[in-house]
UniProtKB/TrEMBL annotation, chain A:
<keyword id="KW-0812">Transmembrane</keyword>
<keyword id="KW-0472">Membrane</keyword>
<feature type="transmembrane region" description="Helical">
    <location>
        <begin position="49"/>
        <end position="74"/>
    </location>
</feature>
<protein>
    <recommendedName>
        <fullName>DUF485 domain-containing protein</fullName>
    </recommendedName>
</protein>
<keyword id="KW-1133">Transmembrane helix</keyword>
<feature type="transmembrane region" description="Helical">
    <location>
        <begin position="86"/>
        <end position="105"/>
    </location>
</feature>
UniProtKB/TrEMBL annotation, chain B:
<keyword id="KW-0812">Transmembrane</keyword>
<feature type="transmembrane region" description="Helical">
    <location>
        <begin position="72"/>
        <end position="93"/>
    </location>
</feature>
<feature type="transmembrane region" description="Helical">
    <location>
        <begin position="298"/>
        <end position="318"/>
    </location>
</feature>
<dbReference type="InterPro" id="IPR038377">
    <property type="entry name" value="Na/Glc_symporter_sf"/>
</dbReference>
<keyword id="KW-0406">Ion transport</keyword>
<feature type="transmembrane region" description="Helical">
    <location>
        <begin position="450"/>
        <end position="472"/>
    </location>
</feature>
<dbReference type="InterPro" id="IPR001734">
    <property type="entry name" value="Na/solute_symporter"/>
</dbReference>
<dbReference type="GO" id="GO:0005886">
    <property type="term" value="C:plasma membrane"/>
</dbReference>
<feature type="transmembrane region" description="Helical">
    <location>
        <begin position="137"/>
        <end position="165"/>
    </location>
</feature>
Length: 129, 550
């Protein structure tokens, strides 16, 4: 075993351990001075994007399974000998999920970039603890 | 023998990579600094490697054989879970600085007691998830070496706790990534070989279930458990003494230890409670166990898709990305890798219905991926292919259960007690011991039933906590706590009841077996209503906004 092994804890755990049994007052410091209004706008934009993606995901999953139940004919069309419903479930659904996730990442990043353009922070890169 | 060799090779290679290959990346004590040198591709492979468990490698193929094509919805749910993760938790979770859900609860709601409650929920989820892993390992080992099931489970427990104690498996990104490659290659290569080398007739039969399912050759069936089954047409079987036994059409009970030799071409008897192999219920791509296919499919999809984000070992992985932006991108990569992997399990199920349908009678469908190659390709090639699958399954078991066991041990020693390294070791041993004890009587329960149970509990507890915690400013401590308790009790209780106790017929049994459709909304409602009745602290809004500022 490597002699340099250290116990890894998240910042939150370190705070919790250091605090011991005293009641909680401070979590990770919230970086100030923050433009609260801008942060709220960003939060709402991100929430809309997340809700839209979750809605589309539900349409894809529930819609596809619903279609199998409503249109049994999907199991009778056989491109290349394989029932169409099987093809959809076994193969086609994965690229769709991938594209949906990719699209969400694009829109989330675009929202963040716009927020940074409107309210640039001094000396700020994409940096977190 | 070859299988044992292949499994040993996977084990040794993992240890070697763990000890030597990762030293460069681990020389700095800070895990985060190390992980910044790991490219997102490696990181995504590591996450996929840890995530693909015995349920994916063995369980899915077995379920397709036994219950039909609809069970591939499980795989879709496993992949779709990461879409929900990308959309709802990946970025904010990374920004919160939390490694685990209890950490996040502490950050967002600032209460040590809630941390302990979350720690308890982690234990429940991790144990439910560990048991099927050990079951898978026991089944594979029993197949490979011919030892009884319990020896395999016990051995698996020893191997995992041993390899964690040796330090060879510690969250090492490259080991997990290596396991993804092992699982993909060792499942995909035999699958492709089997498809290419099976006769055109076998392929057509696999795709036309309406032709019915027959014994492909004269097949001896030894009932290791008492089985009730029904026959559509009479069949004459041979008993071990050589005398012929005529089984009429209708219900039969085979006592434990009965041996029958079924003639080639006979229709497969249908075990009680299972769909007709290849029948309409089997080939309809919806989950249908209790007779309400659409409800069951939707409930299972909800459980798996939302449960993914609540799995403690999944959440932990986002911290290995340097920024929130990378965390999201890594999760997208995981979806691609999972999608690639999930193309293959169904192949075993479809071919298995044609070539090894007797597994359904033996209640041994979880073994189809290992049994099928030897059955389909007699001779040394088949043995080698079976060895590949067995090694892949073992890799799946090894990586997932090590990750789970570490998360469980971490939860025990950090969130519930003040941790120290010897305690962590003890926690690993205790966790493995409990999981082994629970896995021993679980031989007859499908791997996936148990895994979906874990997902259901995660989806009814941590999913609402994370989603509301990240996206709703007014979540309060009493709200979160009451929602967690309600979610844990209902989800654990409902599935536990349906597995362990007799259930009434009809709707009730379906609601108990697939409870996600009511337990998740119940947990969400409890959290919102109780939160509405209480006041959030002043800093709550800041804590939320911080999660979203780049």
């Amino acid at each position: 075993m490597s002699p340099r092994r250290e116990k890894l804890t998240s910042p939150q755990t370190r705070i919790a351990l250091a605090r011991g049994n005293r009641p909680v007052q401070h979590l990770l410091p919230i970086p100030g001075p923050v433009d609260t209004e801008a942060a709220r706008r960003l939060f709402h934009a991100q929430r809309r994007a997340a809700a839209r993606t979750v809605a589309l995901l539900s349409v894809l999953l529930f819609g596809m399974s619903g279609a199998f139940a409503a249109f049994p004919v999907l199991g009778e069309i056989r491109p290349g000998g394989v029932p169409l419903s099987w093809l959809l479930l076994m193969v086609a659904v994965y690229p769709l999920l991938f594209v949906l996730a990719l699209w969400h990442v694009r829109s989330a990043e675009r929202i963040e970039e716009r927020a940074e353009r409107e309210h640039p922070k001094p000396g700020h890169g994409e940096r977190e603890r | 023998m070859i299988s044992a060799l292949a499994i040993g090779l996977v084990l040794v290679t993992s240890l070697v990579i763990g000890i030597y290959g990762v030293r460069a990346a681990r020389s700095t004590s800070d895990f985060l600094v190390a992980s910044r040198r790991v490219s997102p591709t490696w990181n995504a492979m590591a996450i996929a490697g840890e995530y693909l468990s015995a349920a994916s490698v063995l369980g899915l193929a077995g379920l397709v054989l036994k219950n039909g094509l609809g069970t591939m919805w499980y795989a879709v749910g496993f992949a779709a879970g990461y879409v929900a993760v990308v959309a709802l938790v990946a970025g904010p979770m990374r920004r919160s600085g939390a490694f685990t859900v209890p950490d996040f609860a502490e950050y967002r709601l600032g209460a040590p007691r809630l941390r302990k409650l979350c720690g308890c929920v982690v234990l429940v989820i991790m144990l439910l998830y560990l048991v099927p892993q050990f079951k898978g390992a026991g089944v594979v080992m029993a197949l490979v070496s011919g030892t009884p099931y319990w020896v395999g489970v016990l051995l698996a427990g020893l191997v995992v706790s041993g390899s964690i104690a040796a330090g060879g498996m510690r969250s090492a990104t490259y080991v997990q990534a290596f396991h993804y490659v092992v699982k993909l290659a060792f499942l995909a290569i035999p699958a492709i070989y089997l498809v290419v080398h099976s006769s055109p007739r076998t392929r057509t039969e696999a795709l036309t279930p309406e032709w019915g399912t027959h014994f492909p050759e004269t097949t001896p069936v030894e009932f290791t458990v008492g089985t009730r089954f029904s026959l559509d047409e009479p069949v004459t079987v041979t008993a071990p003494g050589g005398e012929e036994v005529r089984l009429s059409a209708g219900e039969h009970t085979a006592a434990e230890g009965t041996e029958y030799v079924f003639p080639e071409g006979a229709t497969i008897p249908r075990p009680e409670g299972l769909p007709d192999l290849g029948g309409e219920r089997w080939s309809m791509p919806l989950l249908d166990v209790g007779g309400y296919p659409l409800f069951e499919t939707w409930s299972a999809l909800l459980a798996i898709t939302l449960g993914c984000m609540g799995l403690p070992h999944v959440i932990m992985r986002f911290h290995t990305s340097p920024t929130a932006r990378t965390a999201r991108r890594v999760a997208v990569g995981v979806i691609a890798l999972l999608g690639l992997f999930y193309l293959f399990p169904a192949v075993y199920g479809l071919l298995g219905r044609v070539l090894t349908p007797h597994l359904v009678l033996l209640q041994g469908t979880d073994t189809v991926a290992v049994v099928l190659p030897e059955q389909a390709v007699p001779g040394s090639v088949g043995t080698v292919l079976a060895a590949l699958v067995a090694a892949g399954a073992f890799g799946a078991f090894l990586s997932t259960s090590s990750g789970l066991l570490l998360a469980l041990a971490g939860g025990l020693s950090h969130d519930l007690f003040q941790g120290s390294v010897p305690r962590l070791r003890l926690a690993v041993v205790v966790g493995a011991g409990v999981a082994v004890l629970l896995a021993l009587p679980a031989q007859m329960i499908d791997i996936n039933v148990l895994v979906v149970w874990a997902f259901t509990v995660a989806a009814s507890t941590f999913c609402p906590l994370l989603v509301l915690g990240i996206w709703w400013r007014r979540l309060t401590l009493p709200g979160a706590a009451s929602g967690l308790v309600v979610g844990t009790v209902t989800a654990t209780g409902a599935v536990g009841w349906s597995i362990l106790l007799p259930t009434p017929d009809g709707w009730v049994s379906v609601l108990l077996a697939q409870p996600a459709a009511w337990t998740i909304p119940l947990a969400f409602t409890t959290m919102t209503v109780v939160s509405r009745l209480t006041r959030p602290p002043d800093w709550a809004e800041h804590a939320v906004l911080r999660l979203h500022s780049p």
